[in-house]
Design goal:
alpha+beta; about 700 residues; 24 helices
């Protein structure tokens, strides 16, 4: 006998044995019918096999604090719906074309299976499946739960072993669920093409309607698509659409043949155009109205162990979990930030402005905005990273924050007992007396006596904590940092959450107070929010709660600690409030409520900042050129249609911050700052202005005072 003949005999024998078993399970038991086949079933181990059914991948929706949708994340675009949320005509169409005896047979359709068996015997291989809807559901579950390529191949391999296991799983499914439940599960897991998984996503993607509102021709179209969704994917072109239209008409003819619709209804539906709309699939940060906040949320979940033990688990939860994520973003405050940025910086400008708003006392991120659109198109001058945040949240290396860091030296001086009118004689230039003048927190000597620090803003002379801050005098703050300590200043900054945007360690050089460490607006705004909250530092918070697909909600509370003595924070606010009335922001003006802040202009105008706060809201604005701020200075530039010889913190970032706050806080009752403790911080100690000494504005020699001359 030939080899081919031997194979046919073996297949025929297997088919005969299987035929008895198939008959036993395919025909619903009536009375004692089917009992005679128990032994046969046992011989081929054709018993129900429990199928693990992990929920299918489902869309995760991100919402703002008011419930508005920000973005959608997904591995497969799917929205699971109930049986009653699917149009009756859709259910009729899919049963008619895929398994018209679905409600009559058991786990498999014996007639279809025997027909497939005959075809397979003739071809000598498993070429036709004859699968019931239940078996198709089983295959999809196995495919969707596969973690490896090997498991995926096993789920679809053409073998009798796979078909046998599929049948055993199908028997289990038929025992556990009603036919309606099985049909709903199948319609929710099936792929229809055009990146649409499940009937609800397909209805919206193909026709812009819900599954409950599908018409006869629309339902027939979707029912026809499941057989070979890639070949009939209408999103791929005319050829695929033509195939889909023909397949739709096959479904309509079959429905008429089975008496589910009349011939007239079929003819009318076949005369209709395909009607594919290609409705855009919402999701991804590029399509979000608030892309930078969207990026922050995505990276927060992927990088934070609070949301899953492993990175793989967190990614699966985000892209497959069907979650509803409620965030801190306030749409009105976000709109205020967007408008202010647009007013001063154009999307086409080379420099980019970025802003973050933080709620004091909670760390809640209320807005994240940038002057450029997020995306990957160089032609549209889009920016491909989160310019508002650090690298851990999708950002870049940030920009040097300049004089906004002087605030940390001011706080350190107050912590060491200095009063607001205590002062130092600041020269026109500052050089460290020796290489050992400053010490890092590891005790290393730092301080370059060959480098001279000069003043970009303010004038030399006798400066107090107030006047030196208001004028943002570099030499004053170098003298002040020398006296209070470099490490002590660094520790103050760290206590307020200051970290480098690139995730590296803070650079501890004598110019730390001048803001040499590249930072991001979220980090700086959060530090200033801690001052506004009277010293309570709260880590940035973007997510307030997550509701899973089963309706269980997990809430996330602010992570706060007392970083500063409340009196120290009050005194800092007192000094910084004068920046608006007596200092670098006096030409811009303040708000209609208590406010405080600090401009930031870096060496040679590489970048410009403003960071400030009210008791109700804090914010930070950065401005720099993402091509490289040191190579592309903010000098001789046109920004927002206006030419600037040199951009300082009060030139653009300050006005952006002010306009944002005026709009964002409209309707919010004004909260005043806590009054200064005059007994503790008012006046001066031993370092009050001497009777004889240089006046403000006079050039002075480099002066060195001992700590005893300065500290109480």
């Amino acid at each position: 006998m030939s080899r081919r003949g031997t194979n046919i005999v073996r297949l025929a024998a297997a088919g005969a044995a299987a035929g008895l078993v198939v008959a036993a399970i395919a025909v619903p038991a009536v009375g004692g019918a089917g009992l005679g086949f128990v032994t046969a079933a046992g011989e081929v181990n054709l018993k129900p096999l429990d199928l693990a059914e992990p929920p299918p991948a489902e869309v995760t929706i991100v919402r703002d604090a008011k419930g508005g949708e920000i973005a959608r994340f997904y591995e497969e675009y799917r929205e699971v719906v109930g049986f009653d949320e699917i149009a009756a005509t859709m259910k009729t169409a899919i049963v008619a074309i895929e398994d018209f005896r679905f409600y009559e047979h058991g786990a498999i359709d014996i007639e279809g299976t025997l027909r497939a068996l005959a075809t397979n015997l003739q071809s000598g291989k498993v070429s036709q499946g004859g699968s019931s809807i239940t078996q198709q559901y089983v295959k999809q579950v196995l495919l969707n739960s596969a973690d490896t390529e090997q498991e995926r191949n096993a789920a679809v391999e053409a073998s009798y072993a796979r078909k046998l296991n599929e049948l055993r799983y199908a028997m289990d499914i038929e025992e556990k669920y009603t036919k309606d439940e099985i049909l709903a599960k199948y319609l929710n897991i099936a792929y229809f093409g055009a990146s649409a998984y499940g009937v609800e996503a397909a209805a919206r993607r193909f026709f812009g309607v819900s599954a409950a509102d599908l018409t006869l021709p629309q339902a027939a179209t979707l029912a026809g698509a499941v057989q070979d969704p890639n070949a009939t994917d209408p999103n791929l072109g005319r050829q695929q659409r033509d195939r889909l239209l023909k397949r739709r008409n096959v479904v309509l003819d079959r429905m008429a043949e089975l008496g589910k619709i009349t011939a007239a209804e079929a003819a009318k539906a076949k005369a209709a155009k395909l009607g594919y709309k290609g409705t855009g699939i919402p999701g991804g940060c590029e399509s979000s109205k608030h892309p930078y906040f969207c990026l922050y949320v995505r990276h927060e979940i992927l990088g934070n162990p609070d949301f899953g033990r492993t990175a793989k688990a967190r990614l699966a939860m985000l892209n497959r979990g069907g979650l509803t994520i409620t965030t801190t973003l306030d749409p009105a405050m976000q709109a205020a930030a967007d408008r202010a940025l647009k007013r001063y910086v154009h999307p086409s400008d080379a420099p980019v402005a970025a802003q973050a708003l933080i709620k004091p006392g909670t760390g809640a991120i209320k807005a994240m905005a940038a002057s450029r659109r997020y995306g990957r198109s160089a032609a549209r001058n889009e920016i491909s990273y989160n310019v508002v945040a650090d690298t851990a949240h999708g950002g870049g290396i940030g920009f040097q924050p300049g004089s906004t860091f002087k605030t940390f030296t001011l706080i350190t001086a107050l912590q060491q007992g200095m009063k607001l009118d205590d002062g130092i004689a600041a020269g026109a230039g500052y050089r460290a007396p020796a290489y050992s003048t400053f010490k890092t927190c590891k005790g290393q000597n730092i301080g370059d006596p060959t480098h001279t620090v000069t003043n970009d803003e303010g004038s030399p002379g006798w400066k107090t904590l107030k006047t030196g801050t208001w004028g943002s005098v570099n030499t004053f703050f170098m003298e002040l940092e020398e006296r209070v300590g470099l490490c002590e200043t660094v520790r103050t900054a760290r206590s307020l959450g200051i970290r480098r945007a690139d995730g590296k360690k803070l650079q501890e050089y004598e110019t730390f107070t001048l803001g040499i460490n590249e930072s991001d607006p979220v980090t700086v705004a959060t530090a200033y929010a801690a001052i506004a909250a009277r010293g309570t530092y709260c880590a940035p918070l973007a997510i307030t709660q997550i509701t899973d697909r089963d309706g269980e909600t997990t809430r996330y509370r602010p992570k706060c600690r007392q970083a500063l003595d409340p009196g120290i924070a009050d005194a800092t606010a007192e000094v910084l409030s004068g920046v608006f009335t007596e200092g670098t922001m006096s030409g811009v003006g303040g708000l209609d409520r208590d406010a405080a802040g600090k401009t930031g202009t870096t060496d040679d105008y590489a970048s410009a900042w403003f960071a400030g706060f009210t008791p109700d809201l804090a914010g930070a604005v950065s401005l720099g050129d993402p091509r490289g701020s040191q190579q592309h200075k903010l000098t001789g530039v046109t920004i927002g249609g206006r030419y600037y010889g040199a951009v300082q913190g009060a030139s653009i970032p300050g006005p952006i911050w002010r306009d944002t706050m005026l709009s964002a806080l409209r309707g919010v009752p004004a909260t005043p700052f806590t009054a200064l403790d005059e007994a503790r911080f008012g006046g001066c100690s031993e370092s009050c202005r001497p009777d004889k000494g240089p006046e403000d504005g006079e050039a002075t020699p480099e002066v060195t005072l001992s700590p005893e001359d300065v500290l109480e």
